[in-house]
Every structure is written in structure tokens, then in C-alpha cells.
Design goal:
Blueprint (H helix, E strand, L loop, with lengths): L18 H24 L6 H8 L3 H7 L3 H6 L3 H10 L7 H19 L1 H13 L1 H26 L6 H23 L6 H13 L5
Helix pairs in contact: 1-2, 2-3, 5-6, 5-8, 6-10, 7-8, 7-9, 8-9, 9-10
């Protein structure tokens, strides 16, 4: 996913980060924000890791410790484990697709509310930079495997079951196409509504 805002609305249920974790998160956010500023000013290709490190006031080695590639800086966020926890917190008798729909919609709405400019810039980069789009596909596959654990536990299946992996992979593939579609259409449509449309298509058995 994208952006670093909590999903559940009840702050009292949020796990408290320790000092070390808060410092790490602060550093990650500083690196990401510096990257977006530089890309906005001079473009993706012209922006180097050395420039990013200087703007974030860290060393290049620190940047690489948090983000193995420049594409990862653009794409990586703190949402995946929060999404997994949010899915596990959904009502036990709720169909898996409805659980994922609720969590994804909440995530999209949180991103639009808190980091809309980042999301706009990120979606443009996904559209314009092949390396970013390729890495997006890889990171969404990683997210799919992570979410498979929660879905498997909720359904009494093994997380390695083909059906479970196909289910979560299909949802993440739909999210990928929604993001690209949204960028291709100048980000004018309601992104949360597009997510619903895509999941409606899956729920309807992919009929046209």
C-alpha cells in the first residue's frame, strides 16, 4: 500500500511504539518527504540517493538501510502490518472480500485525507517511470502474501493454499489497476469509489 497513517479509528487500541521505533519511523518519513520534494523540483531521474540523504540530513548508507532502492522510497510505507491487523479485527462472520473491501477503502480514505499530494505524485510516477511500476508490482505481490496470513486464519485455511493466494493476489492486482487507471485519467475520479468498482467486479465473478 501507500502512506503511513493508522487504519483503525480507535486510538486506544493502537499499539504504542517504543522510542527506537518512533525514531526509525521519523527517519523513514524524513527520507520519503525529502525524496518527494526533490522529485517535484527536478524530476525522478535527476534525483540521486546522495541528494536525498543530504536533504533528509542522513547518510547515503542510512537511506539504503531503510530503502534498498530509490523505487522503494517512493513506494514503501507502514500500512502493510496495520492492514493485516485491521483485517484480523473485522467481524468473524464477515465474508473475506468484504473485510478486504472495508480495510482497503479505509486505507485509501486515510491516504487521501493525510497525504494526498504524496499519493498524487506517486501515482504519476507509477505511470511515467517503468522502474517504479515494476517495483510496485513486486511490492504488491509481497503485500498479497502478507494478507494471505490474515485471510487464511479467518477462513480456517492454510496461508499457502492456492485458493487463498489467488484470492489475495486478485484483490491486490485489482488495486494496482485501479491506481494506474486513476493516474491515466488525471486523478479526477473518486479513488475510493474506483476501489469499490474493482472489487464489485471480483465479487461478480469477473463477468462483463
Amino acid at each position: 500500500m501507500a502512506a503511513s497513517a493508522p487504519l483503525p479509528s480507535d486510538d486506544a487500541q493502537q499499539p504504542r511504539l517504543g522510542l527506537r521505533e518512533r525514531k526509525k519511523l521519523k527517519t523513514r518519513v524524513a527520507i520519503r518527504e525529502a525524496t518527494y520534494r526533490l522529485i517535484s523540483d527536478q524530476g525522478y531521474e535527476a534525483t540521486t540517493v546522495e541528494q536525498i540523504a543530504a536533504a533528509a540530513e542522513v547518510s547515503p548508507s542510512t537511506v539504503f538501510r531503510y530503502f534498498p532502492t530509490k523505487e522503494d522510497i517512493v513506494l514503501t510505507d507502514e500500512f502493510d502490518p496495520v492492514m493485516e491487523a485491521a483485517i484480523r479485527a473485522r467481524p468473524a462472520d464477515e465474508p473475506p472480500l468484504e473485510s478486504l473491501r472495508a480495510v482497503l477503502r479505509q486505507a485509501v480514505e486515510a491516504i487521501l485525507a493525510d497525504q494526498s499530494e504524496e499519493l498524487l505524485q506517486r501515482s504519476k510516477l507509477m505511470l511515467e517511470i517503468p522502474a517504479v511500476r515494476a517495483r510496485m508490482t513486486e511490492t504488491m505481490a509481497e503485500t498479497s502474501l502478507l494478507l494471505s496470513r490474515a485471510v487464511a486464519d479467518r477462513t480456517g485455511r492454510d496461508e499457502g493454499d492456492l485458493e487463498v493466494r489467488v484470492f489475495t493476489a486478485s484483490v491486490m492486482a485489482a488495486l494496482r489497476e485501479v491506481t494506474i487507471y486513476w493516474a491515466e485519467h488525471d486523478q479526477k475520479e473518486n479513488l475510493a469509489v474506483l476501489v469499490d468498482r474493482a472489487l464489485d467486479s471480483l465479487e461478480g465473478g469477473l463477468s462483463l
